[in-house]
Amino acid sequence: MSVLGPPGSGKGTQAELAGQRFGIACFSTGDLLRKAVREESALGGQVKALLEAGSLVPDDLMGKVVEEKLRRLEPPGSMILDGFPRTCPQVEILDRILERLDRKLHLALALEVPDPEILRRLSGRRVCRSCRATFHVEFQVPRLAGKCDGCGKDLSIRKDDRESVIQNRLRIYRSETTPVLELYRERGLLKEVQADGAVGDVAKRFQKEILQACA
Ligand code: AMP
Fold this sequence. Notes:
This protein has helices spanning 11-22, 29-38, 42-53, 59-71, 88-100, 115-123, 163-186, 199-214, and strands at residues 2-4, 25-28, 79-82, 108-112, 125-128, 134-136, 155-156, 190-194. By secondary structure, the protein is an alpha/beta fold. Strand 5 (125-128) and strand 6 (134-136) form a beta hairpin. Bound molecules: adenosine monophosphate. Residues 7, 29-30, 33, 50-51, 54-57, 62, 83-84, 86, 90, 160, 169 line the site of adenosine monophosphate. Adenosine monophosphate binds at residues 7, 29-30, 33, 50-51, 54-57, 62, 83-84, 86, 90, 160, 169.
């Protein structure tokens, strides 16, 4: 299945929770690209500036990254794709990858969150660069302001969580990813989940859709 939704809609959180509950592997393209940037790999060098600007990585490069990941899935099983496909060409790329691997997309779950809520979520997000823990200035306040609860290191703001970059990411979501939702709607694969509110409540709605799709 694929999880779609604007930045800050909680795709990663919901994908992880569902993955844990149903024992399904999760693959976040955003996490993989951020890791490549941190590790200063060749891929990281290619995508660093795009990530920092909140722009999309070219479709053919994303296709290679996703295919490599799906081919290495051990044991071969179901997978939750978090953040792919994000453009109409990526939908076709995924179709071809799945055909080559003799696999099928069963469900596209889109998280819906109003723009003001997205801004509130992302502009308040803080991350620990050392142990990767995430906090929020309103919803998940660290015990000591500006310090990680886990390792005590300084918290920082992700470069793509600055307000101008958030606006760019939202604009791109509306122009590039909304048509993906329409494509999957036409194919009868799309389910939409209201994703404002408490994480646990969203998780119940999200996981109910997965159970219904598998019934
Ligand atoms: P995310 O964590 O899903 O919000 O992704 C963070 C960033 O990674 C995005 O703003 C893009 O720069 C890049 N990215 C992640 N997934 C894709 C994708 N499917 N296509 C293009 N760029 C992507």
